[in-house]
Amino acid sequence: MTREIDCTSPGKADSGRRGLSRNAVREARDFYLCILPWLVGFSGLTLGPMLVSFYYSLCEYNILQPPTWVGLANYVSIFTDDPLFWTALYNTAYYTFFSVPLGVAGSLALALLLNQAVRGVRVFRTIFYMPSIMPAVASSILWIWLFNPQYGLVNRALSLVGIKGPLWLADPVWSKPALILMGLWGVGGGTVIFLAGLQGVPRHLYEAAVVDGATTWQQFLHVTLPMLSPTVFFSFVMGIIGSFQVFTQSYVMTQGGPLNSTLFYVLYLYRVAFEFFQMGYASALAWILFVILVTFTGLQLRLSRRWVYYEGDLRR
Amino acid sequence: MGDLVLSRVMKKFNDNVAVEIDDLEIRKGEFIVLLGPSGCGKTTTLRLIAGLESPTRGEIILDGKVVNALSPKERNVAMVFQDYALYPHMRVYDNIALNLRVDRVPKDEIDRRVHEVARLLNIEHLLSRRPRAMSGGQQQRVALGRAIVRNPRLFLMDEPLSNLDAKLRLTMRSEIKKLHTRLGTTTIYVTHDQEEAMVLADRIVILADGRVLQIGSPEDVYENPRNVFVARFIGSPEMNLADCRVESADGDAWLLGEGLRLKLPADVMTRVAGRGDLPARVVLGVRPRNVKVGRELEDADGAGEVTFFERLGEVNYVHVETGKTGAGMDGPGGASDGGVRDTAGDGAGAGVGADRPGTTVLVARWDEDREARAGEQVEFRLDRAHIHLFDPASGMSLLTCGPRSR
Fold first, then answer.
1. How does pLDDT run across B94-116, given as a tens digit for each residue?
2. Which CATH superfamily does the domain covering B241-390 fall into?
3. ipTM, two decimals
4. CB B123 within 8 A of CB B141
5. For chain B, which residues make up each domain, given as ranges?
6. A314 and B88 in contact by Cβ < 8 A?
7. Region of A260 on the Ramachandran plot (φ > 0 left; ψ -120 to 50 alpha; else beta)
8. How confident is the model at residue B326 (pLDDT cuts 50, 70, 90)?
9. I need a surface site. Which of A71, B303, B329, B359 has the fewest CB within 10 A?
10. How much is the average pLDDT of A180-187?
């Protein structure tokens, strides 16, 4: 058999020998024309502001006066002279550490349930997805009521089984767990992704496992989980990025309290920027968060090689 | 023991009958190939035997016990899948060992058996690899190893070679055969490739539309196809089929077809099923290897024009249009004396290889060293010992077993 050479893709066939053919030039022109709106948007609204904010992070800037250059002073004082920075970082890390694994596990468990061939499963899928399309502010206000120590549904339910519920949002010990619990409400979003992943697991693998005599749990362990590992990985990466930026709940429900126990990183950043008008300092905080997230994501990508199996790898 | 019996087994998907097998008995140690075109129910049959599907009715009997309600594990069957179905996150060693671990076999015995199987399949050096780091052929060996290691009562293989390239397929084919000889485990093997079936099987079960058409040794189904479907499915190139009229003269029966005319010898007549008379029309079948072609033959049965020369190297074939004769054709079977112009095309149900009205293409082995030219006039003669007669309406064979079969 002879293999056909693909002559249509630009650059591949022509550019190697003597510059670009007319065809390739035209295609390149069209290409840049097509991505132009995105290029303009990206440089004007994302890249530009990022570079500017990096400059500001090296300045003192209160919006009213022009920025004055202070070098690394902002960074130095963040790390050496700002207990609130450390509080916010700790709160955020705490929140992420519990909410992301819980969220991933919850999404996966729900997806497994909703993947059964049960009558009306579509209705359930819709119901479980609904919280994800609800505005965060609205659901925050709803949860204020749910967590109300006296009248809230949560403590009512607990009292029915004889447990006296905590003060939740009013108690510095329980405020973060309360927000983590509330986060579980949104697992429907991740569930949709896991459901899609489950559709992609080859049926033969389950059959092979059945022939091997694997129990349902062993099938989950040896087939479902490895085959879903790309989805799990994706959920972890996006989950960590998302929960490091948790903001709305504490802004609406607790304003960072009580005793700064829900002062999350972005909430702190917001306050520095828009309540104290220290734009330079806030920019520095933002860049530190950026570096943290890039590092985390890079680390995860590196670790993923050990435990993520893409289905395509199976084929030759 | 170890006999497997399918008794009055039927499987429906929704309202469609996928498989209906009245009686299929498989002896211990046999290599059985389920052969048929796609959608014929062969894979469903295999899955019923495996226990991955349960029959709508009927019984699957293993070792004299009805196993309908047992899981694959309890039936102690092992299966090799078309796409290997290896666990992607496990090393080869663990892939093979998993089913022993599920059984809580002691560690050192697992180790011993995995290495034994790996040695047998020549994959010992791959034990610490993961599936994605191996070629298709290597993955196939691992899949075989996973099946062998547990020492099952039945091996079930679902088109295990169809994802491999042609060369590797031949290699693996002979290895599977050798493996079977060595292990002696009863094997049921599904394929749509008749050549694979011929090479591997002790007995071939030919299926179409969910029903068994014929069960027999490769030689048997090749020499004595019970109907037109089997005749065409087994053997490559396909058996030639021609619509013929039956005429008797002086107590002899003559077949008159497009550009062909031959007297049926007495021994064929004695094999006519039920010793009855032949119907007025029959479908004549003959394999390309049993047709002799040459420029001038003694006792030719007919003549035609070469339309295509097929060079395969090892064997070459010519396609001869039998209805098409040039000027000066005056052999024993002129096109004019048959009066069968209307027959071609009639027997579409019987699958007659008519190219266009009035001509029939006959494929024959070409034994001469020179190449046949298109347009060349040739004569042909059919080997009487290897002709087949089928009923044009039902497609069933009109002959009982040939002289060559036991």
1. 999 998 988 888 999 999 999 99
2. Nucleic acid-binding proteins (2.40.50.140)
3. 0.76
4. yes
5. 4-233, 241-390
6. yes
7. left
8. low
9. A71
10. 90
